[in-house]
Amino acid sequence: MKKLILNIYNFDFFRYCVIGIFNTICGLSLIFFFYHVVGINYLIANIFTYAIVLCFVFLFHDRWVFSKSTRKLNQKALRFVFIFFISFLNNLLLLYLSVEHFAVHPDVGQIIGIIGYSTTNYFGNKFITFKKL
Questions:
Q1: Which of 22, 35, 78, 97 has its CA 20 to 30 A from that of 71?
Q2: Are 69 and 128 in contact (CB under 8 A)?
Q3: 125, containing H or E segment
Q4: In a 3-state reduction of DSSP, which class is residue 130?
Q5: Closest CA relative to residue 46, chosen from 110, 99, 120
Q6: What does the CA dihedral 8, 58, 124, 21 come to, rounded to 10 degrees?
Q7: Which domain holds residue 29?
Q8: 110-128: per-residue pLDDT in tens?
Q9: Tens of pLDDT along 26-74?
């Protein structure tokens, strides 16, 4: 049983999900705060939030989720920002389309966008940013 628990703990996807859940809770809290309390447009609230959490997420991914990567830090950082940008564009596109073309409430649109972001981000970081050399 102990070996099974250690295998799960060492599994990149499991660790990505743990960080992802934490990031999603913090991110949605900030997005909803900016949107509902401060009154900022839902797209701008999304952009502010992702800009805030970008550095923290990189550190968690580099140190814990994909810690076996042997690339230099500056290589990982540049690739991470590139993957983040692609994932974030995916997020914004899904959010915008959900709200503006399918009449989904912005809160639900945020969740749809997060699903697209998370999928693109995981595979991009696993196979490009933190790929084991």
A1: 22
A2: no
A3: none
A4: coil
A5: 110
A6: 50
A7: 2-129
A8: 999 999 999 999 999 989 9
A9: 999 999 999 999 999 999 999 999 999 888 889 888 888 887 777 888 8
